[in-house]
Structures are given as structure tokens and as C-alpha cells.
Amino acid sequence: MRHQFHDGGHNGLGSNFQSSAIERKNSARERPTRQAGRYGMQMLLALGMLGVMSSPAGAQTLYGAVTGNVSDASGAPVANAEVTVVNTTTSESRVVATDDSGVYNVGNLAPGDYTIAIVKDGFQRFQAKNLVVSVDSVVRLDAQLQIGKCH
Fold first, then answer.
1. How high is the pLDDT of residue 3?
2. Percent helix, percent strand, percent coil in the chain, to nearest 5
3. Closest to 145 (Cα-Cα) out of 48, 68, 35, 63
4. Rounded to whole angstroms, how far apart are CA atoms 118 and 78?
5. What is the pLDDT of residue 6?
6. Per-residue b/e over 111-129, b at no fewer than 16 CB within 10 Å?
7. 12 plus 69 within the same structural domain
8. What are the CA-CA distances from residue 94 to residues 33, 39, 81, 126 (Å)?
9. Which domain range does residue 34 map to?
10. Nearest to 70, CA basis, from 17, 14, 120
11. DSSP-derived 3-state class of residue 65
12. Are residues 45 and 103 in the same domain?
């Protein structure tokens, strides 16, 4: 947009000089906005590509989980019991502790057969064998610990 000014001929520069000076000033103000917009678009595209590349194909779940409650003979929750989950094929093991409510969760388990052992001082060892974990499944195993010596 070209602005026409009339300086009355007092400075001898004429209206064309003033008009082009204002245009240069306005275009200098627009450059950072255009550059910021271009930079923002580049960042948006880069983040979008990163999201596409990092998401699993078809949002498939390749793992399963085991969860349960651990209680004593009276039904009271057993906190801080050690729960060991072992894949019987690979011998890979994971160890977690029950929370204050006696609940444990072990996620991201590869499909396969598992053995679960639960121990806590003052209680007998609990063990469950041949627990089958499948893709995209949650297997529930509740345990009631008996008072006695841990083996």
C-alpha cells in the first residue's frame, strides 16, 4: 500500500521519499512476524513427524499385565509384600511391592507362561505356576497369605 504525503515542498524531498521510507519501516516490522510464522510451521511439522514415527503401527498393544490383591487369612491387606513375576521361557523376572492396600501391578509383560511368588516376613511363601499372559490382556491373581515361616 503506497501512502501519499504532501510535505508542502518545505524539505525538498517530496512525497515519494516519505512514502518509500514508511514502506521500508512497515516491511521491516512484518519480517519477524513472517519469520516467526514460518518457524512455527516448521516446528509443527517436525513435531507431527516425530509423533507419527514414534507411535506403534496401528496402536497395537504387544504386552500383557498381571495384577492382584494380597491379603492375610483374615482378609486384611498385606502392604509391602514382595511380588516376583518370572517368565518361565526366558527367565526374565520383575519384582514389585504391594501398596498400602495390598495391591500389585506388573505391566509390559511379554506374552508367555509365568510363575508368581509372593513373600512377606511372618507369612508363608505363596507361589502360582503356569499363569498365561497374552497380548493385550490383564491377568488377575489374588493371594491370601498364611501366617508362618517364609520358606
1. 45
2. 30, 35, 40
3. 68
4. 11
5. 45
6. beebebbbbbeebeebeee
7. no
8. 53, 45, 14, 16
9. 1-55
10. 120
11. strand
12. no
Question: Alpha-carbon distance 140 to 134, whole Å?
Answer: 12
pLDDT of the residue at 82 = 98
Provide the residue-wise pLDDT of the chain in tens; the chain has 151 residues.
444 444 444 444 444 545 555 555 555 555 555 555 565 566 555 555 555 444 454 556 699 999 999 999 999 999 999 999 999 999 999 999 999 999 999 999 999 999 999 999 999 999 999 999 999 999 999 999 999 986 5
**C-alpha to C-alpha distance for 96 and 90, rounded to whole angstroms:** 19
Report residue 67 as a C-alpha cell.
495384577
Number of structural domains, the chain?
Answer: 2
User: Do 26 and 5 contact (CB within 8 A), yes or no?
Assistant: no
Q: What pLDDT sits at residue 102?
A: 98
Predicted confidence at residue 97, as pLDDT, reads 98
Give the residue among 89, 68, 84 at the shortest CA–CA distance from 120: 84
Residue 93 and residue 87 in contact, taking contact as beta carbons nearer than 8 Å: yes
12 is written with which cell numbers? 525538498
Of 32, 55, 78, the last residue of a domain is 55
